[in-house]
Design brief:
The complex is a heterodimer of chains A (about 220) and B (about 200). Chain A is an all-alpha fold and about 220 residues long. Chain A has nine helices and two strands. In chain A, strands 1-2 form a two-stranded antiparallel ribbon. Chain A starts with 10 loop residues before the first helix and ends in an 8-residue tail after the last helix. Chain B is built from nine helices and no strands. Helices cover about 70% and strands about 0% of the residues of chain B. The longest helix of chain B has 30 residues. In chain B, helix 4 crosses helix 7. Chain B has about 200 residues and is an all-alpha fold. The chains are: A mainly alpha (about 220), B mainly alpha (about 200). At the A-B interface, helix 2, helix 4 and helix 9 of A face helix 2, helix 4, helix 7 and helix 9 of B.
Chain lengths: ~220, ~200
């Protein structure tokens, strides 16, 4: 332990959690982890399960890599990181299969694809390789939360507009349908996930001018 | 043969890696600024998918699947190693990428120079691992079908990234609301391209 011990929740550490949720969001700003983010957002439930799985994998592998950071030879660090992530993902996959089998079927290959989720590789490489376990853990939580929030927002709108349900419960009353309201079938199709994320990026950047790209 | 063409066409257009499953989006968004570099990456992806999917098919069927070890000895007939598939597939992909890189460097330095920087990137491209996992999930009958699927997915990915790069080159001259510039508009164009690609749904040869 170093002499000038920081309090566990110093301002710097809090920033590690809050930054990725908004101004440095992994999906809309860093453009990481989009592959799996979009495919699982048709319904709210798989999206939440996916967000939790990513949080567990990211937090544990960030801590492990951060503990090992002084012993990993730089030349083979990618392989070491992949092995750590892959073993975590196998654990998560087995747990999901055991406890929420139907969701695990819906997520199909996307649980496995957490291995190549760029958020995880990106955070391990950019943060855990150079920081102590506790900040790495907070960084993991922050980034996974930023990822999860986007997932949940997208899934909320797609489920509400596409199937008229939230978490599988009907929220749009029958009388509205009697007036001729129809569920928007397009929202269930994959391309709409991209357009919803595009709209989220638009809103976020309109509110925060610093994020606007120049070209 | 007809079956193979069918699988190929299906994986290029209908089950397109990007528009239907969003695989490989990270490099798709990052590298699609010019047509030339994106074509380089696209070719590298076709190449690697065409190799790793059949190799992973063999591993899946002769090593990992339940009862796959029966060729070794009847005692292993009920061994099921499929929980190891993630870690083995990613190891195969990482080593294949390394191998492909060395082979190309030795035999075709010109191709190596044009693909060079993209090859290492591919090891963590979700489209590659996704190809192997879809192959596992769909349980193709023989290695030829798996190869057709791998090549088809690669070609589909190539088409998508070259298409978006061409659009992005042109869109630089149009007047887009500031907050949408760059990433935002790319997402929306990809969505629109995806809707267009859905027109292929249901074609069968």
């Amino acid at each position: 332990m170093s002499a000038e011990k920081e309090p566990l929740f110093s301002a710097k550490n809090i920033k590690l959690i809050t930054d990725p949720i908004n101004s440095n969001n992994p999906i809309t700003v860093q453009v990481l982890g989009i592959c799996s983010a979009l495919a699982v957002t048709v319904k709210l439930k798989p999206a939440v399960v996916m967000a939790i799985s990513v949080m567990v994998v990211l937090a544990v592998s960030n801590i492990v890599i951060s503990l090992l950071r002084n012993y990993i030879p730089p030349r083979i660090r990618i392989i070491v990181q992949l092995v750590v992530i892959a073993s975590m993902v196998i654990l998560v996959d087995q747990v999901l299969k055991a406890f929420v089998f139907d969701v695990s079927k819906q997520l199909s290959v996307f649980v496995g694809l957490i291995i190549t989720n760029c958020i995880i590789m990106g955070r391990l490489e950019a943060f855990a390789m150079g920081n102590k376990p506790w900040p790495s853990f907070l960084d993991a939580l922050g980034n996974a939360a930023g990822y999860g929030i986007i997932l949940i927002i997208v899934a909320f709108f797609r489920e509400l507009l596409g199937s008229g349900t939230i978490w599988g419960l009907k929220v749009i009353p029958e009388s509205v349908y009697d007036f001729g309201y129809e569920n928007n079938g397009l929202m269930i199709l994959p391309p709409m996930a991209l357009i919803v994320v595009g709209a989220i990026i638009w809103i976020q950047r309109a509110r925060n001018k610093k994020l606007v790209e120049s070209n | 043969m007809e079956n193979l063409v069918n699988i190929f066409v299906k994986s290029v257009f209908i089950d397109n890696m990007i528009f239907a499953y969003f695989l490989g989006m990270c490099s798709y968004l990052a590298v699609s600024k010019t047509v030339k570099t994106s074509a380089g990456l696209g070719i590298a992806v076709i190449f690697v998918l065409g190799i790793t999917v059949p190799v992973d098919y063999l591993i899946e069927n002769y090593l990992l699947k339940e009862g796959a070890l029966a060729w070794l000895s009847p005692r292993f007939a009920d061994v099921d190693l499929s929980f190891l598939s993630f870690i083995i597939f990613i190891a195969v992909i990482a080593s294949m990428v390394q191998l492909v890189e060395m082979v190309i460097e030795k035999f075709s330095p010109a191709l190596y120079n044009s693909l060079g920087i993209f090859l290492p990137l591919i090891a963590v491209n979700c489209a590659i691992l996704g190809g192997s996992l879809f192959m596992q999930e769909r349980a193709y009958n023989n290695i030829a079908e798996a190869t057709a699927f791998g090549l088809g997915s690669g070609v589909g990915w190539f088409l998508a990234i070259v298409g978006i790069a061409a659009i992005r080159e042109k869109i630089r001259y149009s007047n887009i609301p500031d907050p949408l510039k760059g990433l935002g508009i790319t997402f929306i164009i990809t969505g629109l391209m995806g809707i267009a690609f859905m027109g292929f749904m249901g074609i069968k040869l």
